[in-house]
Specification:
With 157 residues, the protein is mainly α. It has 6 helices and no strands.
């Protein structure tokens, strides 16, 4: 089950990123061109929200099943949190990836909710641009890219 969820999480990240980037760019263009908030804008923000939340749910299950996280928890029990924080791999998976992605998903959620509640189209676009951009920066900073010390494959088969 772990491997199936890991593959799905790996694949879904690209869909979630695609929707977040598309929503951000569409709203950036909409904001710059003073365009109306359209059905497409609304759907892109919804798909971004759903993709991010689905990633969160799968990620949470993986978090508690992960051998690396289990190892980090064992180190924490025996040597304390300081020992985990000194190990880049354990720190990344136990703390950095999880918390950064959680914050990014909260930002996507806030951006979507604020855009939905805003009365003016310009504000709807502005909220998506601001919150989704910050979320994107956070997400991109904590994906385990192949060049990172905690590298993972871009595609899991």
């Amino acid at each position: 089950m772990y491997e199936i969820l890991l593959k799905f999480h790996s694949l879904l990240r690209w869909l979630a990123l695609l929707f977040i980037v598309a929503a951000f760019l569409k709203s950036l263009i909409g904001m710059a061109g003073k365009q109306r908030w359209s059905v497409v804008d609304n759907k892109l923000s919804i798909y971004s929200l759903v993709g991010a939340h689905l990633q969160l749910v799968i990620g949470l299950v993986l978090y508690f099943l992960s051998p690396v996280v289990q190892s980090a928890l064992e180190v924490m029990k025996s040597a304390g949190m300081g020992a985990v924080m000194k190990d880049a791999t354990l720190r990344f998976w136990l703390v950095e990836h999880f918390l950064t992605m959680l914050i990014a998903i909260v930002l996507v959620t806030i951006g979507r909710v604020k855009a939905k509640k805003a009365a003016e189209d310009a504000k709807k676009h502005k909220y998506i641009v601001i919150f989704f951009f910050i979320a994107l920066l956070l997400i991109l900073s904590r994906i385990p890219w192949p060049w990172m010390e905690v590298a993972r494959p871009l595609w899991r088969y």
